[in-house]
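Work Package 3 (structural annotation) set out to generate three-dimensional models for the target panel prioritized at the project kickoff. During this period the team completed the workflow that converts sequence records into discrete structure tokens, so that structures can be stored uniformly alongside our sequence database. As a representative example, we reproduce one entry of 203 residues exactly as it appears in the project archive.
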Amino acid sequence: MDWLSNHYLEIFGALTGILYVVLEIRQSIWLWPVGLITSVIYIWVFFASKFYADMGLQTYYVLISIYGWYWWLKGGKKYDRESLPVTRASMKMAIILASVFLTLFAVLWYVLFSHTDSPVPMGDAFTTALSIVATWMLARKIIEHWMLWVIADLVSMGLYLYKGLYPTVGLFAVYTIMAVIGYREWRKAIMASPGSKSLTDFG
């Protein structure tokens, strides 16, 4: 009971996080308000655990949730459809996003290593940079974001195990499995959509 009383926020955040991914797989727009709740909870959890980059990432999630909510509501007009369709990243966009990831990773690693007491600056920077890119891709319904989540989730499991955040380790194990399922489900959506295309711009 003592453990539960000390970790109730983390447990609640893990449960809403699982619901978030279920809604993501189903392409339900309700994933965004659920994501807002989860992010606010984990801002505190990561602050208490000194995962500063992940804490900052949750703040970014709050902002990207608003952006994603807007795009899932209005972005279909760009494709002459009622709702935003699932797309693939073009080679040009993949190169741009890879460059953004590497830049973020380098900057975050330097900041965490030089200016914080983070116990795992490299791993924290890696998962944070990858998650920033993946979440933007989710906001635009780009299918390859699932592949980035598989990588980020596996690395995150190791980091959280190291810090003893066991409910969060379990959460990210579930995330990894669900990311594979999500990719398969979104791939079916692309194959069933006539005239599906790659996303080539950021506008």
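The longest strand covers residues 88-89.
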